[in-house]
Amino acid sequence: MGHPVYIIPKLGNNSRDIPTSAKEVREVIEENNLNNIIIVAHSRGGLISKYLLLHENPDKRVNGVIAIATPWHGSSMAKFFPHSAVRELSPESKIIHDIENHSEVNNKIVSIIPSFDNHVWHPKGSFLEGAMQNINAEVAGHHLVLNDKKVWNLVVEWIEKITLS
């Protein structure tokens, strides 16, 4: 069984703030009249997806999110970068607190967690309390997790599970 895949070119190098990025994803959903959506996202994309579930999904077109190496609680590494899009990922940022403190959509999210993440510097890592599932992947590296065949098999497996639920 195949599923159509949509990429969001408007996100570019992902340097806009999370609310603006979520609105851009929502625009693609509306422009293409998409329904029963499962978003597969990496890192900051998981935060954008959860924000979308919370604030840009009134008609429930997005059914679920599969997030890979997402800094749900922020990353202390963010304080070392001057760019506002990275600073937004600080554990102290307003947007991280908003996303972290609203757990009502966590049960629509599968979080895939690398065994070691060189970018997500937080004691909880990519663990999401109340997630549909937290899955520990036996691969080290924030970006290397994207090249792991077992991780992509998990993504496909969860797409099917969410689609059938």
Automatic annotation (TrEMBL):
Gene3D superfamilies for this protein: alpha/beta hydrolase
Pfam families, per the entry: PGAP1
SUPFAM superfamilies found in the cross-reference section: alpha/beta-Hydrolases
Residue ranges of domain GPI inositol-deacylase PGAP1-like alpha/beta in the record: 31-79
One Gene Ontology term of the molecular function aspect: hydrolase activity, acting on ester bonds
Protein name, UniProt field: GPI inositol-deacylase PGAP1-like alpha/beta domain-containing protein
